Amino acid sequence: MRVFYFPGELMELYGGRNRSIERRSPVKRLSRWNAQLVVTSSILVILLVSVSVGLRQKTKSTKSGFPSWIAWGADQQQQATFTVTPARPLMDERLAITVSGLPPRRPITIRARSRAHDRRYWQSVAVFTSDPHGFIDLAAQAPLSGTYSGVDGMGLFWSMQPDMEPKNGDPSFFAVGGWFEPIFTEIEAICDEHAVGSVRVERHFAVPAAKAASVNADGIIGVLYKPDDGRRHVGVIVLGGSEGGLGGPEAVMLAARGFTAFSLAYFGANRLPPTLQTIPIEYFGKTIHWMRSVPDVDPEAIALYGVSRGAEAALIAASIFPEIKAVVARSPSHVRWEGATANQLPGGPAWTYGGKPLPYVPIHIGAGFAVRYVWSIVTRTPVAFAPMFRDSLAHFDPAPAEIQVERIHGPLLLLSGNDDQIWPSSWMSSLIVERLKRNRHPYPDEQVTYAGVGHWLPIAYEPTAGSRQNMKLRIGGTPEGTSKAQVDAWPKIVRFLSTLPVRQASGK
Predict the structure, then answer these.
(1) How many other CB atoms are found less than 10 A from the CB of residue 255?
(2) Are 294 and 317 in contact, with CB atoms under 8 Å apart?
(3) Fewer CB within a 10 Å sphere, N or C end of the chain?
(4) Which of 172, 140, 138 minimizes the C-alpha distance to 157?
(5) How many angstroms separate the CA atoms of 226 and 240, rounded?
(6) Residue 187 gets which letter from DSSP?
(7) Does pLDDT of 471 surpass 90?
């Protein structure tokens, strides 16, 4: 939702000009006609000055730093009380938010606003009717109108929409500066255009007791996150996707849920290959061996967690190294794909083993996709890559490149969206399951497909309604569908990984 307001400096300028006009207009030097004109003009000037002063007062900032002209802390007396539980929530926790002390049976507007790391504001709004006791429960009531519909206690958070300023920011996704930085959200209740109550919610990716340590040992690059309780835990190696580097917040969030998690970079980081080309699978084997030696990890309870191309890598590594006892694959592939250059062009083999390239499906750019790609450039609209991957599978024999998932010594959890426009992950997940069943994989594998979800499957309660029209690639999904997946996917992942038994060291 866009909100416009006049800055205080602009009103000072207009007010100053009006006052100077008044001072330069002595009535006695003018004719009667001019005097009448001046009197009339003076009245208009006085009105303009009054308006400017009023607007200048309304654009004073509140303690939260938000302009009060859009009801962020107006100078009205605060009488309503917000109650938010838990008091220090994690980003994956659902909140219970209630407002009491409101005028009874009145329409109440609830506004929420957060500032991302790129200084872009995201905001949402919902209008409720207070009950006879002046009470609203956001988790039990559906808004009359707003940026979301239906009963949803986290609706204010996922339905936030970005302001279009600043221009140098990214309105596609909520920018986060670091996984140990809190996310603040200002929430206000407004009645008759006046703020009657407010609260500031502080959410975290990490728990206060979590420990993080950078790792650069024997060529292994990453960050280890672990609980500070001196006990052994399931060890989870987290692999990001084609963006390279250390990936997203999965590792730090797993540590908050009682796992020792290692965010592993396998390209696009210091001393590693710069692109997704000829990555040796032995690198993952070396990381698995190192992870088993971490004191806070049960060496017999190691899992891999991969996203997109990272899911592809996780399935390949788990099919080769029997030490892996479980795999979480988000938006996965059933085959090994061609690598990519720095310009995201076809780059030959992505993976090697024993010094030799592993068979892969080459990228086939057909005439139809080429036309769509050029059209997306001309119209400045996102292009879907999923048809290109389907064309490639139809153009080449994928059998030699299929990942031998039946060799994995543990269960698989496959999660995907049915509207994935990057590549057809739901269909490829089904092909993984077919191969597992055909080879009688003796573990409780699970495939979950989410309706209305694209390639992006967020695990934290963050805004899903970003502006995607300026993106180069179409990712698919809807804000509502993605928000529903938020509710289910992460708890399912945590429960799945928690099924691995952990042996405590003697004396623990």
Answers:
(1) 29
(2) no
(3) C
(4) 138
(5) 18
(6) E
(7) no
Which residues lie across from 212 on neighbouring strands? Answer: 225
Report in angstroms the alpha-carbon separations of 246 from 194, 209, 240, 262, 279.
45, 21, 6, 10, 16
State the Cα–Cα distance between residues 198 and 176, nearest whole angstrom.
24
Among 1, 383, 363, smallest CA distance to 163 is for 1
Contact 284, 370 (CB under 8 A): no
Closest CA to 234 of 322, 300, 321: 300
Give the pair of three-digit tokens for residue 473: 């690639």
Per-residue model confidence as pLDDT tens digits over 261-302: 999 999 999 889 999 999 999 999 999 999 999 999 999 999
- Contact between 97 and 153 (Cβ < 8 Å): yes
d(CA 445, CA 424): 20
Pure H helices in 31-172: 32-58, 155-158
241 HSE (CA, 13 A, CB side): 16
Phi, psi of 314 (to 5 degrees): -65, -45
Distance of alpha carbon 464 from alpha carbon 500, whole angstroms: 32
User: What SS3 state is found at 8?
Assistant: helix
How far is the C-alpha of 320 from the C-alpha of 325, rounded, in Å? 12
The per-residue pLDDT for 71 is 41
Report helix angle 309-320 to 282-292, nearest 10.
70
In the chain, the amino acid numbered 460 is A
Long-range contacts of 124-127, Cβ-Cβ distance < 8 Å, separation of 24 or more: 124/1, 124/148, 124/155, 124/156, 124/157, 124/159, 124/160, 124/161, 125/1, 126/155, 126/156
- For residue 433, give the 3-state DSSP assignment: helix
Q: For the purposes of burial, counting CB atoms within 10 Å of the CB of 33, is it exposed (0-12), middle (13-18) or buried (19 or more)?
A: exposed
Mean per-residue pLDDT, 127-144: 98
Give the span between the Cα atoms of 237 and 264, in whole angstroms: 7
Class of residue 353 by CB neighbours under 10 A (exposed 0-12, middle 13-18, buried 19+): middle
pLDDT tens readout for residues 355-399: 999 999 999 998 999 999 999 989 989 999 999 999 999 999 999
The token pair that represents 52 in the structure block: 């400017």
Would you say 258 and 332 are in contact if contact means Cβ atoms under 8 Å apart?
A: no
